[in-house]
């Protein structure tokens, strides 16, 4: 495997800020650098190191999300008479949910969550380190009133992730069990879901729609972000 910064990015617009945010230590002190990294004794090669893997995962996540967003944009331009809205689809326990991508900053690999003493909110899990900055970590399971799942659904290949959401007072992190990607949903489907969804009265939910043979809760991001702000005060 080549180094993460050499991944095939054909058709992908990775900004300079994206690439600079990743410390390519393998090129400085690793096998492609001066080989002074003390972890080389243990790992032999950078590809066996968790730092390298995390960097690769982050780049691949960005690639997948931007590819899905590009497909959604293409879908929107194929028929100008059909308006669509981009939603990020993710799983919490057995339930699939969708949230508007306009409030999403990034999908990141799962990071350790450090608890805080004397927490005033049940939804506040603690803080997580996001590229050197400590960011508040909230439980959507608690906020949405869902039942915590002990394991992934049968047959699922679970890959937990963290969603970095743009809240009013700064970014917050929410752990999720799986991310499917960004999808462009027909506005007519969303309108029907907001009217006929049998669970539309559920907490912070605009409606329920059928997606890939599943019932998916479409979250009201305005109400959810307001609840996030309350949880942090």
Major sheet: order of its strands?
9-1-2-11-10
Q: Which fold name corresponds to the CATH topology of the largest domain?
A: OB fold (Dihydrolipoamide Acetyltransferase, E2P)
Approximately what portion of the residues adopt beta-strand conformation? Answer: 25-35%
Average residue-wise pLDDT: 74
Q: Could you list the spans in which at least 5 consecutive residues all have pLDDT below 50?
A: 1-20, 63-78
Distance between the termini: 46 Å
Q: In the CATH hierarchy, what is the architecture of the largest domain at level 2?
A: Beta Barrel
Oligomer category = single chain
Our count of domains comes out at 2
Provide the fold topology.
Blueprint: H1 16-20, H2 25-28, H3 40-43, H4 50-78, E1 84-92, E2 95-100, E3 104-109, E4 113-114, E5 124-130, E6 133-138, H5 140-144, E7 161-167, E8 170-176, E9 178-186, H6 187-196, E10 205-211, E11 214-219, H7 221-231
Parallel strand pairs: 2-11
Antiparallel strand pairs: 1-2, 1-9, 3-7, 4-5, 5-6, 7-8, 10-11
Account of the 3D structure:
One of its GO terms (biological process) is chemotaxis. Its main location: cytoplasm. The protein is an alpha+beta fold and 233 residues long. The chain folds into two domains: 80 residues, no CATH class; 151 residues, CheA-289, Domain 4 (OB fold (Dihydrolipoamide Acetyltransferase, E2P), Beta Barrel), CATH 2.40.50.180. The chain is built from seven helices and eleven strands. The chain has a five-stranded mixed β-sheet. A three-stranded antiparallel β-sheet has the order 3-7-8. Strand 5 and strand 6 form a beta hairpin. The N terminus is likely disordered.
């Amino acid at each position: 495997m080549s180094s993460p910064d050499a991944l095939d990015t054909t058709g992908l617009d990775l900004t300079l800020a994206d690439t600079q945010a990743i410390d390519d230590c393998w090129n400085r002190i690793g096998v492609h650098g001066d080989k002074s990294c003390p972890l080389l004794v243990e790992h032999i090669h950078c590809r066996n190191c968790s730092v390298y893997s995390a960097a690769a995962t982050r780049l691949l996540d960005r690639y997948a999300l931007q590819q899905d967003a590009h497909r959604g944009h293409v879908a929107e331009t194929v028929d100008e008479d059909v308006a669509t809205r981009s939603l990020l689809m993710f799983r919490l326990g057995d339930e699939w949910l969708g949230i508007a991508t306009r409030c999403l900053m990034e999908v990141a690999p799962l990071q350790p969550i450090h608890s805080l003493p004397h927490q005033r909110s049940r939804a506040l899990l603690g803080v997580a380190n996001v590229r050197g900055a400590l960011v508040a970590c909230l439980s959507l399971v608690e906020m949405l009133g869902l039942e915590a799942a002990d394991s992934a659904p049968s047959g699922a290949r679970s890959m937990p992730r963290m969603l970095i959401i743009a809240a009013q007072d700064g970014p917050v992190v929410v752990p999720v069990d799986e991310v499917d990607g960004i999808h462009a949903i027909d506005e007519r489907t969303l309108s029907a879901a907001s009217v006929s969804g049998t669970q539309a009265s559920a907490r912070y939910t605009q409606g329920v729609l059928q997606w890939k043979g599943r019932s998916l809760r479409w979250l009201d991001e305005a109400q959810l972000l307001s609840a996030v702000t309350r949880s942090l005060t």
